[in-house]
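Hi Y.,

Following your request, here is the sequence exactly as I used it, all 301 residues.
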Amino acid sequence: MTNAGAKADYHLTPAGDSLELEFSGDWAIGSVVPDFAGIQSALEADHDGSTSLRLKTPGLGHWDSLFLTRLLQCANWCRERDITLDDSQLPEGARDLLRIATAVKPAPVESVAGNRWTRLSDWLQNIVDETTAFCSFIGAVVLAMLALARGKSNTRARDVLYFVDQAGPKAMGIVTLLSVLVGMILAYMGAVQLRQFGAEVYIANLVAIGMVREMGVLMTAIIMAGRTGAAYAAQLGTMQTNEEIDAIETLGLSPMEFLVTPRMLALVLVMPLLVIYSDILGILGGLLVAIGLDIAPLQYF
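Below is the corresponding structure, written out as tokens. Let me know if you'd prefer a different format.
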């Protein structure tokens, strides 16, 4: 018999050396159901001397995964106290799902204090491994560059030109947007302070020095790391997953010379030009704010 539409409730009854936990009403998502803290408090108060917990559902209405969550919490409570759980009177579907959920015992939680030295050792080992891998990469890059300088590299010129196009002209849009905005921000922030002294004309100095010395190269480096660097990592990671790098090594080619060197040369060639481009656009962005402060473009330049 079901009790669909009724409020979710439970009732705990001691029965000799066992406890009977009865569920009634709708135990479904969207319904107001008792939390496990209340059920646990009732179990803790009445379980002295009890060796089993019998789950019963004489008035259970609609139920879904929310009901299974409470059943699993009851099962975990019984396991922690070596109490037998009797689910024979549960609905067949709920009983099967509960047995699947409790088929594998959770891994024991290890003590943090007992594993302090182990974690420290793992952390130090991780630092050593990462440092070793980084040094190995730098060494491989140096060897690849020496091979290129001797004319014995597998690096192709057309690959370098392709990556120059990817890292340079196709990155100018985002560099333009951010550089202009940074220049405008520098000019606006400087104008707020310089206006107090009647020295708005020095906005040009502030923007030019700020962009050329700091913000131009910094913003360009961040853009290239986030855009081009992430693209390189994704490309090489995909090739590693698809075993394309292994195929290149099988052909007798050096992945460092064939894949890494063209990308690094492209960045070395493109970055200085993008920095200069960013500096100019940042200064022009400051000009837009200066014009709004009645500073003539000729005076600004």
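The beta strands are 9-15, 18-27, 52-63, 84-89.

Thanks again,
Q.
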